[in-house]
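lol ok so funny story. i was supposed to be doing the assay writeup but got distracted and ended up predicting the structure for this chain instead. priorities right. anyway since i did it might as well share w the group, maybe its usefull for someone
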Amino acid sequence: MFSTDAWIRNAAIYEATRTHSFNRQLAAGTLPMPAFRHYMIQDSHYLVAFAQALAVAAAKSDEPDHIVQFCGAASVAIEVERSLHTDYFRRFGVSDAEVAATPPTPVAHHYQSFLIASGFREPLAVHLAAMLPCFWIYREIGNDIHTSAAADNPYRSWIDTYAGEDFSNAVDAMIAVTDARAAQSGPKELAAMHASFTRACQLEWMFWDSAYREADWPV
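and the output, tada:
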């Protein structure tokens, strides 16, 4: 299956992401608060674009069940983005004004642009492959951190979000629909799917690395 092959091909990127200092320190509860605040603000921007990318997938699909699935996932992405404002931002001292005044960083801007361009320029199968790592890697990282994070970890509420059963079910559904489309794809489209999946895996690592470094536009 496409998903099994894609995960094996990108196992080294996932392992680099899992063991990145941001995620290791998040699990230990020692991640500096400025890095986490930086991450939350950028994630807020990203989630809006991710929801838009899912909405494009719904528009491109001709399967009613898949349209419902993509629209539902887009709605959840916006709900998570709003929960950042109503819960995490308040908890960690981030104001709406600060979010509005902080533009996407180079990596966040690249990732958002990649997903939107994928939606409008690529076949549905390739677009799904571009979005799948965000679902899948977040679940695996969330589960990995969840097993080692202490109950009093200051980031526990965020950790629990991505280690929950509802999110895991959504990931399984995304893997299934991507595999179904891959099964209908020829060699050229499959190659494009793998290229998009790998690029998204790279951007996932870069997103966390950028937050850890509190990166910004250099000029």
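Residues 128 and 178 are 6 Å apart (CA to CA). The chain has a mean pLDDT of 93.
back to the writeup now i swear
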